[in-house]
Amino acid sequence: MTAITVKSGDPLLEFLLRMGDNSLVLGHRLSEWCGHTPVLEEDIAIANVSLDLVGQTQLWLGFAGEVEGKGHSADNLAYLRDAGGFRNFLLVEQPNGSYGQTLMRQFLFDAWHYYMLRRLEHSSDRRIAEIAEKAVKEVTYHLERSVDLVIRLGDGTQESHALMQEALELLWPYTGQMFDADGFDEVAVKAGIMPDPAEIRPDWDAQVTRTLRAATLEIPQEAFSHKVAARSIHTEHLGYILADMQFLQRAYPGATW
Amino acid sequence: MGETETRPELDEVWSWLGQVPDPEIPVISLVDLGIIRDVEWLDDRLVVTVTPTYSGCPATSMINFEIEKALRGHGIADLELKRQLSPAWTTDWISAEGLEKLRDYGIAPPLRNMGEQVPCPRCGSLDTELISQFGSTPCKSNWRCKACLEPFERFKCH
Question: Which SS3 state, helix, strand or coil, does residue A109 take?
Answer without folding.
Answer: helix
